[in-house]
Amino acid sequence: MRKKILIFGATGYLGRFMVQASIAMGHLTYAYTRPLKPGTNSDKDTKVKTVQDFKAMGGELDDHEKLVGILRQVEIVISTVAEYPG
After folding, report:
1. Total-model pTM
2. 50-69: pLDDT as tens digits
């Protein structure tokens, strides 16, 4: 059964695999990421590329209104956001 899924932390190590697997399984998948800009950090550049790939697959959530609208529609929310010790 096709589900509507929202994945937070989509450019992280686990998140990008979750997005790819969800799409491969035929689910309508939304990927939420924090805004990223190209820089000198190769990890950041990799995340920028990942976001570009997700956008090419069909979507983006870059503002509050879009996010709220999607939250009202999805059936499943997955968080792959890493916890960093402070």
Report:
1. 0.72
2. 777 766 665 555 667 878 88
